[in-house]
Amino acid sequence: MNLIRKALSEISVIAGPSSPLLAAGIAKHLDAELIPADLRIFSDGESKIRFGKPAHKKCVVVQSTHPPVDTHLLQAMMMAAKCAGDGAQVCAVIPYLAYARQDKAFLDGEVVSAALVARLLESAGVERVITVDIHSKIAASYFSVGVRDISSIPLLADYALKMNLRRPVIVSPDQGGIARAEQFAKILESDMIALKKSRDRNTGAVTIEQKLDADISGRDAILVDDMISSGGSIAKATEVLLKNNAGEIYAMCAHALMLDDAAQKIQAAGVRDVIATNSIPGKYAKVDLSSALADGIKTVFA
Ligand code: R5P
What we know:
The protein is of the alpha/beta class. It is built from 9 helices and 15 strands.
């Protein structure tokens, strides 16, 4: 007899167009109903989204907001608005939360986009947000609904533990990432160093101090960052590590945006491999977030 097994949890997971596989993984971990969203993009670029009526009043919209950023963001709002309009409680799972870097006006006249994004998602009906390694706590503070920020570090470090590394040293490309790198190093029972990076706010050009405080000769290095965007930070950091006689160099991050020629830049600098989570689908998405996100959802809807 071909019995269709009914999902056990009382949660409906809407698979946003940017994150269908991740949504399926989350629904599987939750034993929840999975609702695919049907997307049509009109020739002027507008999105039309349609999905079946959720069976439950607890809805999870899974939609990462990697490029095309604005399109994915608006699609997240559309799905949230539909669920909220039907009377559901909406939790938005946005593993890569776009605009979190623009959390203040760094130069006169800049818009604080992170604050605007928070207001937009809330006005669409989002009552709770789950994200991964949000770039800044300030960005999270613009939400008046709860934001649960899940760290990918234990998962990335777990992956690194299975790599065959020679006396690895964990490297943060900048001082801002020290806590992340320290946590990573603790799991690997290894050492950590933080480079001294600065960025020109007008041109985006990155510079890193060449001299290190530690001897890393012959040691494999894992560069740990929240995201790789243009690849400039990782490429510059790699140059510094190689000048200081490091062994093999790997880059690990939560969000591999890998824009434009980032991959070539990083490879040319000497990085052996890039390992990221599946917050952004693609060839670098080697670490699965679905179980950690499912656990986060359980606590939201407990
Ligand atoms: C900066 O503070 C971030 O943690 C990343 O290091 C940065 O956003 C990476 O950007 P890119 O790849 O363009 O250097």
